[in-house]
Amino acid sequence: MARDDDVMQWIYWHHGTRQPPLTAWRWPPTEHVVPFLTQPCLPALQLDSGAVLFSPNAICRYFFLLSGKEQDDVANQWLEWEATELQPAVSAALYLQLVQGKSGEEALAPVREALAHVDQGLAQRGTTYLTGDAESVADVVVWGALFPLFQDGSCLPDNLGLLGSWFRSMSQLAPCRAAAAAVLTPEGARELRAHLQRQPVPSPAFKRPATNEPEEEESAEHALSEEDIAAAADAWAQGTAALPEPWQPQHPVLPVAGRKNVLITSALPYVNNVPHLGNIIGCVLSADVFARYCRLRNWNTLYVCGTDEYGTATETKAMEEGLTPRQICDKYHAIHARVYSWFGISFDYFGRTTTPQQTKIAQDIFGRLLERGFLRSDMVEQLRCERCQRFLADRFVEGICPFCAYEEARGDQCDKCGRLINAIELKRPQCKICHDSPVVKSSQHLFLDLPKLEQRLEQWLEQSWATGDWTANARFITRSWLRDGLRPRCITRDLAWGTPVPLDGFRDKVFYVWFDAPIGYLSITANYTDQWERWWKNPEQVELYNFMAKDNVPFHSVVFPCSLLGAEDGYTLVNHLVATEYLNYEDGKFSKSRGVGVFGDMAEDTGIPADVWRFYLLSLRPEGQDSAFSWADLLLRNNSELLNNLGNFVNRAGMFVCKFFGGCVPEMELSSDDKRLLARVGLELRRYTQLLDKVRIRDALRCVLNISRHGNQYIQVNEPWKRIKGNDADRGRASTVTGVAVNMACLLSIMLQPYMPSISASIQDQLRAPPACCVLPSAFVCTLPPGHRIGTVTPLFQKLENDQVEALRKRFGGGQPEDDALEPQAKAAPPKPPPGVDLQKVKELSEQVAKQGTHVRELKAAKVEKGQIDREVAKLLELKRQLALVEGRPPEPPAPKGKRKK
């Protein structure tokens, strides 16, 4: 049920300009109390259908959609964040402020990271409001949540200037002023305080990703009860005897009755290029973390992936390099395998789609769909490039979106408005290979009749969403496909390189890659084991997790499920669809041809270890909105979070054992403070498990860093290096602190395993951790008992220097020749510039754009006055406009951050 402090979000719509007629809801609020509620609580909106909405967030969305408007991706992400992260933090802060009488920084501790997140969002987008230059439903909801804390403006932190400006701007809007006047009465404040007093002590649901500032202790700490502390001490005392036996799966890994069987796939990467960091975090690395976590939980886990090798992209790459499609596939499959191996991706099997098993399974599914009447044929007008002498696949034609006028829309979908597009509907289409204008020609093709399968799909989606964990963007994108009704989807192409269509009249065609490629999950598993059907035709025993970036969602949530549903062969369908947003590079996009960004075959040559790359990518994993790789941020996180926090703690704990106790874990006599620490660590461990169960990978990593932070504070407060020189009591205290600390380090080695497997193994090797440490415990237990002898302790991380990182930033910033010693055969030929382009001018303007972009980032990082940032951003946009004109392309406003393509 909703909380009293939420009501303002709802009332805005009553006074605002977008509200429906008053007949759609009743007023005053007391008339909204739903009769069957045992404790009437506002707001609650009863719809004409009889359904009731309790969440102010949901009510705002309802009125917004009722007005005929649609939320974009960015607004949807802010609303998801408000519901899951901001509201729990606000509740905790209000409790401290109104019930416990706290003020200032102490009262705001629970919302400090949430405030920084809003401020950062405004700074990164460079806009007045959260989603653009005008207020949106996201602004209303977030403002309404924060208003009870900052109603008089005096509590706004001084160091969050953009947040303060945004909050004051929102508060000056007439609807907001009216909403505040209607709710923030003396009686309303009393009711809010009384309501909070009746609630359990609240705590934030979880933390945001790491910031550059040191954090205070978790505000949830004061929620520890005496029972929690006693339970933590009991669990500790049980030691490794409390840990389950490690599960040893058979080979090949097959489902086992009575166990949790987890099947994990990551989107099959195209074989025609080298994956960049955004590709890696978007699918294979995220899936790897979860697969490793599942194995730590003793779940029976199979993780499969492989290269997607058919289609126009492969044929085009083969032409560029003067090779056959098969040679290109062999070459780049090896490159992909090498990259993923270096990054420590733990596939059970990494295959490919150009196999006999792929042909057999794809043609079988096709035949079953044909027999059941779920295929139809029709003439298709297609774009054909006469210069390239080929029909153009959807992703190899680009033009202006017919719906929103976005100038980089693809031939199948617009990344800006999300609408589906028929390639011939594009305005001013261009062949992405040679940049000629294609012509329209007709060809007979086969279609998957999605309208016939729509009802089955919706029934399955309802079940999957009710029982599984789909990310918010995956649900949103799927709903957007269903919103206007499904249309038949063409599944054949006029190509030579692909799975052949086994039907007379179409034998000169192949299956379209987005019909064929997801079937690769099945065929890759079939190449791993001839008992593949025990995974893929076993929905009763198998939970399927799909990992991908958001552009792959509709094909995994609509097209592929419809193919399997229509085949009527008992296939396992996805239970948990996990989609990321995009990772950008600094202020732009990754581009192999322009030398912008770090690609997988280059990461090793930087000298930065694979586990550090893994840590950084996972710490900024784009879960709720796009994020950006930054060299300065990489340096900061390596030196502060890895070197000074995590590495410092583990090294100190081990060194104390070696230096003071001869390499053997000393005796421990726990004090009340020690037991409280055990409970606090156990709380972080439980939260870590809860988050990873829900595939909240980035947020679970914060729990690991929180434990090492607690450990550093524990050591610093108790000063064992001083106490070891004191009396018997002091030496006993040093003994206990050292023993507890080294056990915390051992626990961290287990929790780190999904994120930094090499570092995890190094810690366990140094501590000579017992075999039981390959299973995640349910509580913090003493795994290294007194007398346990550890090994040689050495530093885990190296400091990154400014000049080292600056050299890397320049190297990967574009405009420089790629190092032929890296992977010369992997370089894509850059497109030829249009005739008459002044290449020297292009180079000069590109350098100015890069320099000005760096200047803007530095100003934002320094939190300078917004007006100064706006002036420098305007200069940057003007330089970009000039560059576009010189390059012979029309200038365009920058796409919103949340809309960038990979």
Which ranges are low-confidence, i.e. pLDDT below 50, for 5 or more consecutive residues? 1-43, 203-222, 816-835, 893-902
Gross morphology is globular
Strand order of the largest sheet: 5-4-3-15-16
Number of strands: 18
Per the CATH scheme, the topology name of one domain is Glutathione S-transferase Yfyf (Class Pi), Chain A, domain 2
Summarize the structure.
It catalyses: tRNA(Met) + L-methionine + ATP = L-methionyl-tRNA(Met) + AMP + diphosphate. It is built from 31 helices and 18 strands.
Task: Please explain how this structure is put together.
The chain has 902 residues and is α/β, with parallel strands linked by helices. Among the domains are: 4-205, Up-down Bundle (Glutathione S-transferase Yfyf (Class Pi), Chain A, domain 2), CATH 1.20.1050; 227-242 and 630-800, Isoleucyl-tRNA Synthetase, Domain 1 (Orthogonal Bundle), CATH 1.10.730; 807-822 and 834-899, no CATH class. The chain is built from 31 helices and 18 strands. It has a five-stranded parallel sheet with strand order 5-4-3-15-16, with helices on both faces. Strand 6 and strand 7 form a beta hairpin. Helix 3 (73-99) runs parallel beside helix 6 (137-150).
